Amino acid sequence: MSQIQSKVWEGDKLTPRIGKSRLPEWFTRTNKKQVDLAKYLKVSEAFISQVIKGDAQLSVIKMKMTADFFGCHMDDLVYWVYD
């Protein structure tokens, strides 16, 4: 068990925050395109680019829809950072 997992397991108060986007990985894994996700979410391709760069974040609803689009869990869409 890693040090972070151990701290979380022991009940220490670590606050998760969204780190780097994993969307590029999911586009590659599923052979889906950024334009298709943008259409599915009813947002612009520019917005998806901003999410990938870390300049914007998906709402909880859009994150759930994105997870459904890729067939994964919401947690799989970003790297989580614990402070």
Give a description of the structure.
The chain has 83 residues and is α+β, with helices and mostly antiparallel strands. 52% of the residues lie in helices and 13% in strands. The chain has 5 helices and 2 strands, in the order αβααααβ. The protein has helices at 3-9, 23-30, 34-41, 45-53, 60-70, and strands spanning 16-21, 78-82. It has a two-stranded antiparallel sheet with strand order 1-2. Helix 3 (34-41) crosses helix 4. The two termini are 18 Å apart. The mean pLDDT is 88.
Mean pLDDT: 88
Give me the strand/helix succession.
HEHHHHE
Helix fraction, binned, reads 40-55%
Radius of gyration: 14 Å
Outline:
globular
For the report, how would you describe the main beta sheet?
Answer: 2 strands, antiparallel
- Based on secondary structure, the structural category is alpha+beta
Overall number of strands? 2
Q: How far apart are the termini?
A: 18 Å
Query: Strand order, biggest sheet?
Result: 1-2
Count, helices: 5
Runs in which pLDDT lies below 50 for 5 or more consecutive residues are none
Bin the strand percentage.
Answer: 5-15%
Give the SSE layout.
Elements: H1 3-9, E1 16-21, H2 23-30, H3 34-41, H4 45-53, H5 60-70, E2 78-82
Antiparallel strand pairs: 1-2
Features:
83 residues, single chain, globular, 52% helix, 5 helices, two-stranded antiparallel sheet, alpha+beta
Concise summary:
This protein is of the alpha+beta class and 83 residues long. It is 52% helix and 13% strand.
